[in-house]
Amino acid sequence: MLKQILEDINKNKKLADTDLSDVHPSILTSVSGDKRRAKENLEELYFTYKNHLKSRVIFVLVNGKSSKKFSEVAAANFNGSIFTGESFYEEIVNKVDTQNYIGRTASSSLVDILSSVLGDKASDIGITGYPALLFKSEQTAFLLNEKKDLVNIFKDMLNEQVGSEFVGLDFLEKVAIESVNSNFSGSVKPIFIHSQDISLLETFAKDFHQRLTPNVFTVTAGIASKEVSEKSLLTVSGKITKTNVGSVLKEIKNSIKL
Question: Tens digit of pLDDT per residue, the chain (258 long)?
């Protein structure tokens, strides 16, 4: 199905990219109409592609000292995409002028700014409704001395009040664009998310599994606490190589529910 959709996307993209300045006046009206319809078709085809891709996506949440290395090797060799667990929150905060928070405590006006940026993101990725971010008095307890302070506050607000599946949907949107551009039509599309924040990955695991897909897997790569390792589906110790990463992904593939 993805292969056929991609063929239709590429066909319509060619029409949508038609340079009207090169078209003879006698057929300009007809070609202009074809170009307009092709653009409309592309929107629908992309939406269809993304929905079909969603059923092929698996989230692999990687913790441990070697989580970044594992994710990099996995993404490079097994047709996957890679994100840090914190990247979405950092992306939103990066759009807030530091003059609005450095050296200050959180305020309702700051939450309004974050809400506005989040609303723009929701529109971009097709989210039409979600709980609003609410300012709470306890958020004023900490002075915001640097960007990561606001990232941490926003991360907690979003996860508790909206749900971390918002992050998963943003990753899906990015991967869908990447997959269309690379003509991906495979049966499985892994998304590797690595972080040293175990609590964040546990939140992702719960919310993604409940609201996005049953195919959410946890991996510990390298040194981690016994408690963390026991919670992970799979553990990789020692040097991270293509071979042992491949073995882990094979086990995951055997557990996928499609």
Answer: 899 999 999 999 999 998 888 888 888 888 889 899 999 999 999 999 999 999 999 999 999 999 999 999 999 988 899 999 999 999 999 999 999 999 999 899 999 999 999 999 999 999 999 999 999 887 777 799 999 999 999 999 999 999 999 999 999 999 999 999 999 999 999 999 999 999 999 999 999 999 999 999 999 998 655 555 455 567 787 789 999 899 999 999 888 876
Q: How far is CA 59 from the centre of its chain?
A: 10
Kindly calculate the radius of gyration of the chain based on its CA atoms and give it in whole angstroms: 22
DSSP state of 96: S
On whether the CB atoms of residues 155 and 200 are closer than 8 A, the answer is yes
* Contact status, residue 100 vs residue 147, Cβ threshold 8 Å: no
Question: What tokens does 198 get?
Answer: 């175990």
Q: Is the dihedral of CA 235, 241, 242, 243 positive or negative?
A: negative
> Using an 8 Å Cβ cutoff, are 209 and 50 in contact?
no
Provide the residue type at 115 as one letter: S
Beta bridge partner(s), residue 216: 59
Q: Put the strands of the sheet holding 81-84 in their side by side order.
A: 81-84, 189-194, 57-63, 216-221, 234-236
Rounded to whole angstroms, what are the CA distances from 246 to 47, 61, 81, 184, 210? 31, 15, 15, 20, 27
Half-sphere exposure of 212 (CA within 13 A, CB side): 27
At residue 205's C-alpha, the angle toward residues 201 and 208, to 5°, is 125
Q: To which residue do tokens 């971390």 refer?
A: 164
